[in-house]
Amino acid sequence: MSAPWPPSGRIELPDTDEPYWAPEETMDPEQRRGVVFDKLREQVRYCWERSPFYRELWSDAGVFPETLRTLDDLRHFPFVKKEQIRADQVAHPPFGSNICCPPEAIAHIHGTSGTTGRPTAFAISRDDWLRIAAAHARIMWSFGIRRTDTVFIGSFFSLYLGSWGALIGTEALGARAFPFGAGVPGQTERALEYIDLIRPTAFYGTPSYALHLAKVAAKRGVDPKDFGFKIMFFSGEPGAGIPATKKRIEDTFGAICIDSGSMAEMTPWMTNSECSHRSGMHLWEDLVYTEIVDRETGEPVEGDGEGVPVYTHLERTSQPMIRLYSGDLTHATSDPCPCGRTYRRLPDGIYGRVDDMLIIRGVNVYPNAVENALASVPGVGSEYRIVIERPGELDVFRLEVESTEPSVADAVRDRVKSAAGVGPDVVVHPPDTLETTEFKSRRVDDRRNTAASTPSH
Questions:
Q1: Closest CA relative to residue 155, chosen from 119, 112, 123, 203
Q2: CA–CA distance, 36 with 286 (Å, rounded to integer)
Q3: What does the pLDDT look like over 362-380, one tens digit per residue?
Q4: Higher confidence at residue 185 or residue 455?
Q5: What is the pLDDT of residue 185?
Q6: Claim to verify: residue 266 and residue 393 sit in the same structural domain
Q7: Is the residue at 189 inside a domain?
Q8: Peptide bond into 19 cis (omega under 30)
Q9: Which of the residue ranges 11-15, 159-163, 368-372 would you say has the lowest mean pLDDT?
Q10: Angle CA(82)–CA(84)–CA(89) in degrees, nearest 5?
Q11: Inter-axis angle of helices 243-253 and 207-219, nearest 10
């Protein structure tokens, strides 16, 4: 008999010394596929009944709930892409025609920053908020976090879902939450005082903020190892999945460094997460089902070939995503993890993008936004180059332009920072220095890829 759908989100904590939270974690993968399919069938039926967005999308593609006879039949359903979500919210403001729940059921509103156009709004129901908290608590248990831990959350509490996800997971697990935040002038110096006072045992934030915290501490003569962190988990940037940066964090703090995170739209976003063994992100497929598809054909990739993660909610009643195309690049393996969980893993994490969106210091940057900003600066030519490198732990964003006036550098930097959310180092060349090209991909030189794809085990 299938379990009730959707699950309640009630928490039943394991014993402290129990390594696993739920039996699904160590199930034979074929048996777990049955659990996934039961949830998927209910999720698809729910979307068909409550979402005009999906009824139209699926009807146009000639698929219906009855099309889903096995888990493999999911491949017949069309992808959902971010631009479709944005367009649907423009047509049906504010949350689109895929909200699926009444307005009074909504508990949280989050979203994108909208730096490249209309922001995307995320509406999460009260029941979904509880389920997200339960999912994150379960995954954080695999990091080694227990009720006796105090989790320092050094991240923005705003539209960004990362910090909120860490907070509610901590609370659901029964640990002590220390939602310190980030971004206020002088806050890092104050963080050092509070860390010394409270002595948290776990840390959540971005890799760049952790390393910044360490540098500020060093200037004050404080060794970050003395903080007492045992576990540091991250999202929002790829750094924790890059072997050199992971090692730098672990060596600096004397703590384990855990990479996590999928997409804000796919919250519970922790369903891509490493465990305490750090051998690549597990795909917690009984919570969010993940396919890896060929970047050219869109067909599921067999084995451990490279492809694009496509995510499907299994427990969402507000804004559920069915086959959301991530645009990321990764590869999966079914090789066993020392932890004993039988989920597939992403041994090298998320290491690239199939489109031209760039993630620079945790900010989504589009070449189009850069080009539009350049066009608004008098005296700047039409040719440009975007160069991104990672010589150390942080991204370096260099923008090369052409002009007869070297002084345009300041205006270019300011306009690009305003449009894209991150300011570049600007290099001004004389006119006709840069090779003329009609392809944006040739204007982008992302030199991080080789380092990012270095195996992590």
A1: 203
A2: 5
A3: 887 877 678 778 878 999 8
A4: 185
A5: 86
A6: no
A7: yes
A8: no
A9: 368-372
A10: 100
A11: 40
User: What is the pLDDT, as a whole number, of residue 344?
Assistant: 97
Instruction: Transcribe 75-89 into DSSP letters.
Output: GGSPPB-HHHHHHHH
**Is a pLDDT exceeding 90 seen at residue 287?**
yes
Note whether 373 and 415 are same-domain residues: yes
Helix axes 126-143, 161-173, angle to 10 degrees: 70
Same domain, 344 and 404: no
For CA atoms 323, 328, 329, 332, the dihedral sign is: negative
φ and ψ of 210, to 5 deg: -60, -45
**pLDDT over 60 (residue 186):** yes
H or E element at residue 401: strand 396-402
- Given a cut of 70, whether residue 114 has pLDDT beyond it is no
- In this structure, the dihedral spanned by the alpha carbons of residues 21, 328, 395 and 192, taken in order and rounded to 10 degrees, is -20
**Residue 353 pLDDT:** 76
Q: Are residues 339 and 371 in the same domain?
A: no
Q: Is residue 41 part of a domain?
A: yes
Residues with Cβ < 8 Å from 18, sequence gap 6 or more? none
Task: Note whether residue 2 is domain-resident.
Answer: no
In angstroms, the CA 159 to CA 112 distance is: 7
334 and 402 in a single domain? The answer is no
Q: 456 in a domain, yes or no?
A: no
Of the candidates 354, 379, 397, which is a domain's last residue? 354
Longest CA–CA span in the chain (Å) reads 74
The closest alpha carbon to 394, from 248, 266, 253, 228, belongs to 248
- 110 with 239, same domain: the answer is yes
The domain of 422 spans 358-450
E strands present in 41-183 = 106-111, 121-125, 150-153, 176-178
Mean pLDDT for all residues in the chain = 91
Query: In CATH, what number is assigned to the domain containing residue 171?
Result: 3.40.50.12780
Residues 247 and 392 in one domain: no
DSSP string, 336-364: PPTT---S-EETT---EESSS-EEETTEE
Taking only the tens place, the pLDDT of each residue in 393-441 is 889 999 999 999 999 999 999 999 998 889 999 999 998 898 755 444 4
Total number of domains in the chain: 2
| End residue of a domain, out of 332, 354, 376 | 354
335 and 397 together in one domain = no
Say what the pLDDT of residue 283 is.
Answer: 98
